[in-house]
Inverse folding.
């Protein structure tokens, strides 16, 4: 019985595979041969078809789950490729193994019938926020460098990732930036509530970026944004005041109106795809940052953990969040980040499974 945890989200499907260190000696039957082949296929490759990827840098060795030592592998593919994934799983012989797979996220419901029909797999469904929290606690406990913050986020020469000791975490806020955004307030290992959310999230960034720049992938959108200048697109306080708005402490380079320059035909003619991508990233990120801050104030919580795949290969957004949380809270709030940013739900549902 292979150990999989799946988090089937609105954009990406996250698949976590636990590979036991000591393979049972009794691997003789044809069923076990299939298992071996699947294990080999998953652990010897880092790309599956055109769109599946294994995040080898996130792999966790020598972890213990239900008394068994093994390795956790982290794999992702677009949820839109689910049909191809199921076809591949069938081709690899999954349907011959009577299996249950742990699943969470909306797709656990949406694709339940397809799993049964195509690969004879039953989905053991778990709540996505329960899974998220369980996975987060487990991974943080097992990886000493999981949690970090950004020091000097606005100074390129001094900016650095710094390890953060998250061993006494409560209370804290989780801001999960996936296709949309959910905000959870966590008071203890088992006591939490979903306090807010917004539909303006990672999916919005990617959707708008594709519309505005003609790009086609998240990686492309981030590369464009890295080369752009949002001040060509946004209207800043200094564009309105000629400098700072001193009375209320608003600096001149603060965005007063996101995309506020784009009503001018002349400005539009000068703006680049890179500028538009950067402005989209800054707009979405700052909006999430201010919602997070308001939630933190309302709950009287100082530590805010940002997770979700929007933060993948996205230091610009992380540094913006780090700066904004610190600046607007006058140093009382801290933005924290986790290395396994998008995988906690998939790990958490695997941990909850009972054979
Ligand atoms: P969900 O569970 O809603 O799919 P995720 O936490 O997986 O949420 O995050 C999805 C978001 O991550 C996308 O909206 C996009 O902003 C970002 N993202 C990061 N990498 C990719 C990728 N390879 N393909 C698509 N979106 C990606």
């Amino acid at each position: 019985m292979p150990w999989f945890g799946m988090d089937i989200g609105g954009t990406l499907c996250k698949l976590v595979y636990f590979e036991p260190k000591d393979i049972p000696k009794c691997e003789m039957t044809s069923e076990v041969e299939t298992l071996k082949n699947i294990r080999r296929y998953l652990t010897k490759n880092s790309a599956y078809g055109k769109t599946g990827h294994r995040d080898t840098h996130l792999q966790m060795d020598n972890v213990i789950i239900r008394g068994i030592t093994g390795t956790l592998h982290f794999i992702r593919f677009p949820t839109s490729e689910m049909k191809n994934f199921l076809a591949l799983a069938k081709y690899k012989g999954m349907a011959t193994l009577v299996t249950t797979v742990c699943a969470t996220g909306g797709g656990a419901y949406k694709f339940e019938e397809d799993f049964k029909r195509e690969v004879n797999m039953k989905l053991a469904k778990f709540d996505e926020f329960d899974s998220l929290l369980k996975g987060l606690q487990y991974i943080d406990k097992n990886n000493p460098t999981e949690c970090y913050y950004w020091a000097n986020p606005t100074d390129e020469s001094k900016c650095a990732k710094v390890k953060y000791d998250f061993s006494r975490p409560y209370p804290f806020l989780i801001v999960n930036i996936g296709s949309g955004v959910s905000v959870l307030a966590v008071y203890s290992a088992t006591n939490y509530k979903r306090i807010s959310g917004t539909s303006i999230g990672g999916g919005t960034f990617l959707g708008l970026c594709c519309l505005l720049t003609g790009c086609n992938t998240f990686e492309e959108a981030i590369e464009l944004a890295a080369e752009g200048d949002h001040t060509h697109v946004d209207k800043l306080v200094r564009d309105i005041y000629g400098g700072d708005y001193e009375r209320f402490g608003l600096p001149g380079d603060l965005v007063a109106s996101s995309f506020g320059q784009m009503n001018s035909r002349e400005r539009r003619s000068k703006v680049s795809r890179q500028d538009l991508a950067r402005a989209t990233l800054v707009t979405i990120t700052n909006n999430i940052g201010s919602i997070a801050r308001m939630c933190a104030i309302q709950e009287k919580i100082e530590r805010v953990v940002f997770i979700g795949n929007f933060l993948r290969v996205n230091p610009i957004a992380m540094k913006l969040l780090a700066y904004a949380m610190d600046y607007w809270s006058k140093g009382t709030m801290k933005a924290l980040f986790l290395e396994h940013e998008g995988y906690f739900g998939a790990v958490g549902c695997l941990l909850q499974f009972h054979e």
Remarks:
- The mean pLDDT is 95.
- The first strand starts at residue 3 and ends at 8.
- Residues 228 and 275 are 4 Å apart (CA to CA).
- The two ends are 9 Å apart (CA to CA).
